[in-house]
Amino acid sequence: MPASGSHDRRCRPPQAVNVTATAPKTLADRIEDLLPQTQCTKCGYPACRPYAEAIAAGDASYNQCPPGGFEGVARIARLVGKPVIALNPENGVERPRPLAVIDENVCIGCTLCMQACPVDAIVGAAKQMHTIIPELCTGCDLCVPPCPVDCIAMIPVTGELTGWDAWSQEQADAARNRHDQRMARLAKEREAAEARAAARQAASSAAEAPEAPAPVADDAEAKKRAIIQAALERARKKKEELAKAGAAPKNTERVSAEVQAQIDAAEERRRRLGLQSDAAPAKPAHNDSDH
Ligand code: SF4
Ligand code: SF4
Ligand code: SF4
């Protein structure tokens, strides 16, 4: 007799295997993995990723990243099967890694450095002193030019060590994550701003739009009133013609209470329909009920 466990295995449907498919890395992905991720733009591109894409596409040389230095050039050269060449001096020099330091006595709290920092390494608020978190600073220099009071200094902190000797893979990975998070946050903020602008535009267009046509029900009501008004007008003209011909009714001066009630009811109906009478209902001076 089979063990209960084997019976269970035969009767149960096969378990789904949880396999996460990962797309194979492109050449740009693999080049990006080799870059130091300071996001400094010294390569001539707005961040490390676009530079990696440019190298992969053959649009840029692999010797334009000063923070990676000579070792960085050699890493990419090995990947793409090309010779190791010198760093292009037009992009900068390999140097000990610096950290940004704010002179907090001079800072005016303008926030311009925060906006320039590619890895959100600066904390502060408008009109308040700003501070740099040293562990997060990549030494990219990007906060220096926007400072209107020139209170940010770049201080070398790695002694004689330069390039990849002054920057670990863990630091590069952390900087890459922070940059990705920043880009995602900025994209969200942009989307929200665009949505607000679109809502404002829609509201102002609605305010300027011509008045919407009256609802169908109102149209039908207006048509009905126009028909009745035209009928009353015809009746009035007919009455005038009859009066001119001496054939007008002779009993309008003294009407019975019953007839007066009918006149009042008709006037009330006209009033309810919003129709205008030729004149105020002619109340007889007196009627039969006076007697
Ligand atoms: S570290 Fe700077 S120079 Fe190097 S690839 Fe990144 S952005 Fe370009
Ligand atoms: S604090 Fe300045 S130097 Fe440091 S990462 Fe931010 S922008 Fe670059
Ligand atoms: S740019 Fe300069 S003044 Fe403005 S907040 Fe940054 S450090 Fe302070």
Question: Your description of this structure?
Answer:
The chain has 291 residues and is mainly alpha-helical. It has three domains: 70 residues, 3-methyladenine DNA Glycosylase II, Chain A, domain 3, CATH 1.10.15.40; 104 residues, Alpha-Beta Plaits (2-Layer Sandwich), CATH 3.30.70; 53 residues, no CATH class. Helices cover 44% and strands 5% of the residues. It is built from eight helices and four strands; from the N terminus they run ααααβαβββααα. The protein has a two-stranded antiparallel ribbon. Strands 2-3 form a two-stranded antiparallel ribbon. α2 packs across α3. One iron/sulfur cluster (SF4) binds next to loops. The site of one iron/sulfur cluster has 16 residues, from α3. Keywords: 4Fe-4S, Cell inner membrane, Cell membrane, Electron transport, Iron, Iron-sulfur, Membrane, Metal-binding, Repeat, Translocase, Transport. InterPro entries: 4Fe-4S_dom (IPR007202), 4Fe4S_Fe-S-bd (IPR017896), 4Fe4S_Fe_S_CS (IPR017900), Elect_transpt_cplx_RnfB/RsxB (IPR010207), RnfB_subfamily (IPR050294). It comes from Caballeronia humi. Pfam families: Fer4_21, FeS. This is Electron transport complex, RnfABCDGE type, B subunit.
